[in-house]
Automatic annotation (TrEMBL):
<protein>
    <recommendedName>
        <fullName>E3 ubiquitin/ISG15 ligase TRIM25-like</fullName>
    </recommendedName>
</protein>
<dbReference type="GO" id="GO:0008270">
    <property type="term" value="F:zinc ion binding"/>
</dbReference>
<keyword id="KW-0479">Metal-binding</keyword>
<dbReference type="InterPro" id="IPR017907">
    <property type="entry name" value="Znf_RING_CS"/>
</dbReference>
<dbReference type="InterPro" id="IPR000315">
    <property type="entry name" value="Znf_B-box"/>
</dbReference>
<dbReference type="InterPro" id="IPR013083">
    <property type="entry name" value="Znf_RING/FYVE/PHD"/>
</dbReference>
<dbReference type="InterPro" id="IPR043136">
    <property type="entry name" value="B30.2/SPRY_sf"/>
</dbReference>
<keyword id="KW-0862">Zinc</keyword>
<feature type="domain" description="RING-type">
    <location>
        <begin position="15"/>
        <end position="58"/>
    </location>
</feature>
<dbReference type="Pfam" id="PF13765">
    <property type="entry name" value="PRY"/>
</dbReference>
<dbReference type="Pfam" id="PF15227">
    <property type="entry name" value="zf-C3HC4_4"/>
</dbReference>
<dbReference type="InterPro" id="IPR001841">
    <property type="entry name" value="Znf_RING"/>
</dbReference>
<keyword id="KW-0863">Zinc-finger</keyword>
<dbReference type="InterPro" id="IPR006574">
    <property type="entry name" value="PRY"/>
</dbReference>
<dbReference type="Pfam" id="PF00643">
    <property type="entry name" value="zf-B_box"/>
</dbReference>
<dbReference type="InterPro" id="IPR051051">
    <property type="entry name" value="E3_ubiq-ligase_TRIM/RNF"/>
</dbReference>
<dbReference type="InterPro" id="IPR013320">
    <property type="entry name" value="ConA-like_dom_sf"/>
</dbReference>
């Protein structure tokens, strides 16, 4: 008798918490299923309240329900994982091939900038399991991994040197390109894309037309750079004017310490705040650290940890 086949959507077997295929699936009393580790983590956060809820329907349970493995659901999910890589996942023309697969190559879904390999979905899961907890930099699958790595330092080319107009690694910025103007490669890529979005002139074989197009592009580029700078300068001038209107600047600036004395003011120290290792003299205008305890009366304002004292007058 032929085996009946039922088409199912993998989304029906996704964990609502981690949004991946269920791992060690368990069902809770309301009927919803989760990865055992996912629902355990959720309920661990609710331990203090002693009331546990379903992340999906919000139904609450008390005491904490026991979690039992759903054997049938586990088998279904395992079969789904095995069929996840089907014939249409083989690498075709223009696709990046998995560099770990033997035999016919599957289409790569991610590339690792640490291992310098591209992985299909199955090999990617093994890679993540092998390097769990380690920071491996994954990117969209690319066949140009070597071009993204600094040949000298074997680091990711994630910095753009504006001075030399080239991508460099972080070590290059402190050695060969020290003191050069640099931005992140991502920022440079975004800026370049915004410039490329400018409407391009129609194609022409005329040399003069090509030259004119280049000049137009240069003018547009120059204008796009100048506009933000001009706006920033105008903003700074306006803010400075607002500050100048509110603040009265002195007509003369003291040139030396003698000139500064005209702004001096005699301060009287507050005896009630003086620490007991400090001695006040000359009508409480001079303070001396003695290292010996002074016979000051107890006062709630007195400093008792650090040798400090307050002024009676405001200094502002």
């Amino acid at each position: 008798m032929a085996e009946a086949r039922i088409s199912v959507d993998q989304k029906e077997f996704m964990c609502p918490v981690c949004l991946d295929l269920l791992k060690d699936p368990v069902a809770i009393p309301c009927g919803h299923s989760y990865c055992k580790s996912c629902i355990t983590d959720c309920w661990d956060q609710e331990d203090q309240k002693r009331v546990y809820s379903c992340p999906q329907c919000r139904q609450t349970f008390s005491p904490r329900p026991d979690l039992a493995r759903n054997t049938m659901l586990t088998e279904v999910v395992e079969k789904l994982k095995k069929t996840r890589i089907s014939a249409d996942c083989y690498a075709g023309a223009g696709d990046v091939q998995c560099e770990v697969c033997t035999g016919r190559k599957y289409r790569a879904v991610k590339s690792c900038l640490m291992c310098l390999n591209s992985y299909c979905q199955n090999q990617l899961e093994q890679h993540e399991s092998l390097f769990k907890g380690k920071k491996h930099n994954l990117t969209e699958a690319t066949g140009r991994l070597q071009e993204m790595i600094c040949q000298k330092h074997e680091k990711l080319l994630d910095v753009f040197c504006c001075t030399d107009q080239k991508c460099i690694c972080v070590l290059c910025t402190v050695i060969e390109h020290k003191n050069h103007e640099a931005v992140s490669a991502a920022a440079q890529r975004t800026e370049k894309q915004s410039f490329q979005s400018l409407s391009a002139p129609p194609e022409s074989t005329d040399v003069n037309d090509d030259l004119f197009s280049s000049l137009v592009s240069s003018d547009a580029l120059r204008e796009s750079v100048h506009q933000p700078r001009d706006k920033l300068e105008d903003f700074c001038k306006e803010e400075l004017k607002k500050i100048s209107d509110r603040v009265a600047f002195p007509n003369t600036v003291p040139r030396n310490s003698k000139d500064s004395l005209q702004y001096s003011h005699q301060l009287t120290l507050d005896l009630n705040t003086a620490h007991k290792l400090l001695r006040l003299s000359e009508s409480n205008r001079v303070i001396t650290y003695t290292g010996t305890v002074q016979s000051y009366p107890d006062h709630p304002d007195r400093f008792d940890v650090y040798p400090q004292v307050l002024c009676k007058e405001s200094v502002c």
